[in-house]
Amino acid sequence: MTVTGSSHEQDLPALPLLNSVEHPRDLSRFTSAQLVELAAEIRTYLVASVARTGGHLGPNLGVVELTIALHRTFNSPQDAIVFDTGHQTYVHKLLTGRRDFSNLRSREGLSGYPSRTESDHDVVENSHASTALSWADGIARAHRILGREGQHVVAVIGDGAMTGGMAWEALDNIADSNDRHLVIVVNDNGRSYAPTIGGLAHHLDALRTNPGYERMLAGVKRTLLSQGTPGKAAFDALHGLKRGLKDVLVPSAFFEDLGIKYTGPVDGHDITALEFALTRAREYAEPVIVHVITEKGRGYTPAEEDLADRFHAVGRLHPETGLPVVQSRFGWTAVFAQEVLAAAQADERIVGVTAAMQAPVGLQPLADAMPGRVIDVGIAEQHALTASAGMAFAGLHPVVALYATFLNRAFDQVLMDVALHGAGVTIALDRAGLTGADGASHNGMWDIAMLARVPGLRLAAPRDEASMREELREAFAVDDAPTVVRYPKGSLPEPMPAVQVLGGAQQTCDPFACVDVLLLPEGEPVAGQPEVLLVSVGAMAPEVLQAARDLSTEGLRVTVADPRWVLPVSSTLVRFAVGFDVVVVVEDGLLSGGAGSALRDALDEVDRSDSKCPVVRRVGIPGRFLSTATREELMEDLGMDAAGIAQAARDGVGRWSPR
Hints:
Strand content: 5-15%
Oligomer: single chain
Radius of gyration: 28 Å
Low-confidence stretches: 1-10, 243-252
Strand order of the largest sheet: 7-6-8-9-11-10-16
């Protein structure tokens, strides 16, 4: 298959060099000039292709030469190349024979991350940052124990991922012994989603920008090469020189102080310089760090000039201008951004906390208005939660904004640091539920079942803009326990006001006990006709309401209720549900251990002497990893669309028998 072989790319210019690469070994026959042209062809292809499908554009434009040099220096897949994070592997895919990006991040298309099901060249489906060094260390240790002396391991980790604690745990272990082939490429572009923060970032910046250091090393390198100094000897000489110069020209030779050999900085867009450094590093039978300087968005003017990192991940866009084809609609994240800013303006105790995703999670407006009220901890979700517990102890109310999938990494901290200590911390979970295009690792489907285990935690799931604003305000007011507000990716639905509020008057009832009724059946009950209750959890409300209307046309009496605060199950909802014959709980989370399971268990505890025993059906996500597809496709597959919900209700009616 050639790049120009699909209709998706039929209007691309000719890309003869890229079309000739079927395997990384094909790169060995290219001249230096051809490699430069190949890099240009790859950038042309990436911009044109990702503009049509969406995807991670900026990170991949920045690693074109680096990926070429890696594949010319190492023998993949015998030599394992582990990317952290995997969103920078589009070039790797192109150079390993995967050149049809027409369905990128779609069903039956290429994943947006490495995938073992796609290629033997992919080692780790690495879409959660800061894990590559641990993977690489484990692989290298196995090679040593099994006697595989000729196999190398390369970890490519960005400076942003180096802010994660797991990366430093791995470095500590890697530095503890130097008996294995392991090359660590630090891809330093000064950015993750946003400018990289923290002490490491300042250290790398000093290395990157110190002209005296770079000029002196470049001069020594030219001298050594002109004298014919052998490669390994030249490397050793430069290594010794850098250690001698560190106190004069470098603030801290941080990596070398750890006990790991270091070389760099290397121009990440100079293939010859990259190959020189990587080849020397490969010759060592011990860990070596190669510090590479790259430019995110390299070669694409709109991305190079963008300071807000709009091109880190993009939707469909016009390649000539970089402007989106469809403007983003007012969505869930924007509502959160407005509410947290308003809360901070009204209450000096409110602070925002982000894990290297200030803009994507909606904290940028607060940071712009009150720079000292947003704390970016880097890619360190565990630290974010425990530090927030500390801030709560000292009198603040932290609002930790994360993608739902990344909260998984900090469960212990939520349980033992926040909940155990009754800390008033609000966790805002963006992209909860099915997200689809980013594949198995990014579906935010684990949170309800996971957090249901946490004593004292309260979790809300808004259904529309009005309920989201209310529930966020309610969460911010809790100072003696963790609160969670989860909401999906994308645009907001139409308003869905309550027709009745259970638990008291809407203005006076306990917000954590109130239940909104969204739809009531028409007419009076008929003897022998089942009463059906559909319990809608958060963003599932549009599908649930549609299912209820469809069932009503079949003659069924259907009521729709939204508990608003899902965890713990409110006694109001339990008392209401026992009056029905069939109860169907619909959630955008795991079936096992989720909201439906919690309500079913609560109903089991009800005294049955004077109440019904309703048939309970649950609609949600099974406990398995899901293939890449759109949210709509996944919902249809899993019976979570209106048709599937209606069928679950029919099944419940089929199991019901009049008393």
